[in-house]
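User: Can you fold this complex?
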Amino acid sequence: MPSKYSLLKESWNMILMYALALIMIFVLTFHLLLVSPITGKTFEQVLNYSYVLHNLTYYRIVFGLLLYAAVIHGLNGLRVVLIEWLHVKRFQWIINIIIVILMAVLLAVGTYTLIAI
Amino acid sequence: MEKEKEEKRYKSGLLRSLWPYNFNVERYTYALHRITGVILILYLIAHVFEIYHLALGPAAWQQTMAFLGSLGIWEKIGLWIIAGSALYHGANGLRLILNEAFGMLLGKPVLPEYPYTPTSLSRNQKIAIYTILVIVVALWIWAGIYLLWGLGII
Amino acid sequence: MKVRIRRFDGQKEWWQDYEVDAKPSDTVLDILNRIREKHDHTLAFRQSCQMGSCGSCGMVINGLPALACQTRIGELKTESIRLEPLYNYKVIKDLVVDLTDFVNKHRSVKPWMIRKNPQELEEAPMEFKVTPDQNLTFVQFDYCIMCGVCLAACPTVAIDPLFLGPQALGQAYRYIADPRDEGFEERIEVLDDSHGVWRCHFAGACSYVCPKGVDPAKAIQYLKKEVLKYRLLHKKKASVKPAELIQKAPPANAPKPPPFDFKIEGGE
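Assistant: Here's the predicted assembly.
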């Protein structure tokens, strides 16, 4: 049964959410500034293949951090919404499995993108 | 049956929980935080797969851009909504972290006296909420000018 | 004054209108009693003290959960009143709701003083007192009259019937904040659960509608801070040792305070 030191407590989940949220405030602002008019480019120029490729390769680590933080924070949030909505206690584990699978898929696709370019 | 018992609760359910009619402004901020969060995670899932096409080469990227371009004005309106969601969700989330993890902006426990204005919903909290709303709306309008009118000015 | 009430007889639900005489100083409970006496004796509702102390008459008045005995017609500022049973509860009849789940959730957080030493009562020389400052940290949350109005306003209770609710969580904090209580570890398993304190997202509607100014939203945010401190730093809200709780008795030759400190006009 759950002990004092169990990491499966909901508090650890929330500590993770808060920490990732604080990280994302900085990293997401950085990403949004790269595609904002502060760079001097228009909307179409910002979507140019070589510009996007240059950004992702040059700031690979920052975008890696953004990917992991955003996916984990976002899917955890979705998990909270689903647990409240589909609150039958017997089926909570199904929600956890779906979220973990979705997280694995998104992180795999994202990591592959960052490594392959 | 568990489901039967729940269905008989008077006026409860997902839509009722997001309907803050008649309540305080914090309940509106909660509903908006939840809605923007769901919008953002759905967009993120699509966005990760969109950027994946970058790794498949310029041709795949052009195809993706052509698909988005075929949506016309809806692409820009969609991105505008998502920009607003991100701004609001982040700013409100910061306020919630201050409230929940650090116990700030809540006021001290006091002896209740009529008319029982709760200190957690009083002046400091309202100042924080309205400041956040003003900043978020200002940045959102700026994003709208950039996206919808195509003006690349700062 | 037109009054529209949501009726339920066990099978069908319907809205029923009544026309009653009302002064602005009448409360909604007065109107309900008048309807029951003169217009429709089948109307069911709960009441007891009629003065905002027992918490029986909770219902939704013009869309906001409130106590019927504490809501005056003049304050509502509308031509008609709409009365419904409390949201998020199972309706038994008309305006009477089933409070069994509510009471069970309250009981699950152990809302009583937990002390570890069973010999304490024999060993302590006098009762354990708290200083006025210590009292102020939790007395606000002690004013709860268990009316159930906060659970009707809470959006999480609306989606999730397993959520403990602002009342139970507020009472859990009342005991955790009390320096005389030693039961933090016993309660934390229930609180740090997937339907415990973390399903509150600070919508604040519970504090908005609370008729006694208990401010359960504040209690829950403070409770979250205590839970985080315990998990991260293993520091729990220090329960004061019995020796510190026993205040020294004043010396025998100290001047006695006067029996009262106000003057009665015309007295002496």
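Residues 216-233 of chain C form the longest helix (18 residues). The longest strand of chain C covers residues 2-8.
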